[in-house]
Amino acid sequence: MTDPWVALEPGTDPAERVRTIRVAHERFTAAGTVERPVRSVVAESWRRSARARVSPEDTGAAVELTAGDLGAYRAEHPLSRVMPLFRELMGGFAKDGEHLLAVCDAHGRLLWVEGHPATRALAGRMNFVAGARWAESAMGTNAPGTAVAVDRPVQVFATEHFVRRVQPWTCAAAPVHDPRSGRVIGAVDITGGDGLAHPHSLAFVQAVARAAESHLALLAPPVADDGALELTALGRDEATLVVGGRKVRLSRRHSEIVVLLARHPEGLSGDELLCALYEDESVTPVTLRAELARLRQVLGPEVLRSRPYRLGAPVTSDVVTVERRLGCGAVTAAVSAYPGPLLPGSQAPAVARLRRRLTDQVRAALIARGDPDLLSDWVHAPWGEDDVEVWRALAAVRPTAPVVARLCALDDELAAEAVPRNGRRS
């Protein structure tokens, strides 16, 4: 194979290839061994699928978002801004060729599935529909799920699919990245018959994905130069504040002050700030005034104002972004915007309360949604590795041996802590 990402070499007989790969698939599912002519990208995907305990006999994907939840999530997702572009570039091709245009998020969840009506009806029988989770860890090898898993454009031809129910289909997908961060935000896919195994279909979806990234870059708001403020404070002890296009890294105490003032655009008095920032009641107003004077030197008097203390321009923050997405039910989008607790090292009473409240809101939404990928991301993050309630929720939807073992260990630790020194449980 000259290009391992292309499903068929020129001149290959598709029917013969289907039979050959079917035999290899049966051998793999029976004995766990995979040999040529299976492409390396497919072999590796089969192994990941097996480790995730995907069954080759699955009959269809789980539909996780329906009706209002789906609409709210799509409205918040950045790929909604390029759906008109996808339809313009791919919609006619999908309908005329009796194919489907599909767009998924970074977790392999389908957000849009459009195209030829008869093909949509057939695909619907295996729940290839909007709101269904086609992550590789859920439905095995498939183009949109594998593309986001490996962050590469990929074709999956017929019997290369891990789940047998999907093997009559062929698909090609390419990941789409956030133009600012480079993070994968989803993938665009074309799904249909064997004709899509042609190299042109892979190049086509890759070109569409690049066009979408360019369009997102054009749609991104320019860096403000009018004094508008952009605060980033999640997952870090020292916040950053963008002031008129200038990024300022704040000290820990200055971070706490700016976070609190951002929550109170009406302003706070010196006494209110003193109580919000210091546990030690012996701290004097002079100490606070000195901190505010230093912060004013950093930001400028037009940004930090007094009587009462307040910020002199509207503030956007990552905290508000997470809260807004949670409020409209866009849990996955909220989690993607949550890189960790608010100023995790801060002991300021008001910051600690805000940190706990936001963390509890995200946790509650994760547990209620029950998405195994989101739950797994949480418990494997530093702030969630001992979160027994989230581990318990993950074990309920993905009871693999490592998950169950970790939950048992945490339960044992809690039980041990509940036994006082006299040996009696509290």
UniProtKB/TrEMBL annotation:
It holds the Pfam family GAF. This is Transcriptional regulator. GO terms for molecular function: DNA binding. GO terms for biological process: phosphorelay signal transduction system; regulation of DNA-templated transcription. The lineage of its organism: Bacteria, Bacillati, Actinomycetota, Actinomycetes, Kitasatosporales. Residues 245-311 form the OmpR/PhoB-type domain. It comes from Streptomyces silvensis. Keywords: DNA-binding, Transcription, Transcription regulation.
